[in-house]
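User: Predict the structure for this protein chain, please.
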Amino acid sequence: MESTGPVETGQEGVYQYLREAAAKGKPFFLVISLVNPHDVLFYPLQWNASGYSSSLLQGPASLPTTWNESLITKPAVQRQWAAQNLATGLSPQDPVQAVNYLNLYANLIQQTDAYLAATLNLMDELGLTDNTVVGALWGGGGACVGGGGAASNDAPSPQCPR
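Assistant: Here is the predicted structure, written as structure tokens:
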């Protein structure tokens, strides 16, 4: 976001780009790719190697009451998904990891919100907001550690904490 450098080498940051665009006074197009909330899927195996700070695992998250419920009455796909993710390490392996997973997701979303707010504030300061269209695109329904500890990034379900 705050990087500076030659545009030709892709080293300029969003703020530099906006300042230069405002100075030119011409229409511009900018795409900002903020933190990928799907990076939560790196936890627990690869999140640390991906450069994330352990401080992102801290927060107020708590596990839903369904954390350890049996999946025997659920559709077979849920049992298969949970077994595969547990066997490969792609799901939290215990309650501590599950809480860390939820906090990581929430903190990644908070970072995204902060970057977006800072960008919009700078656009306001530069007088760009009166004649600019801003669109935001994202997908997914949010992280959830539901029944049987199965990790999900699909549409919210009753097992997802709110």
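The chain has three helices and two strands.
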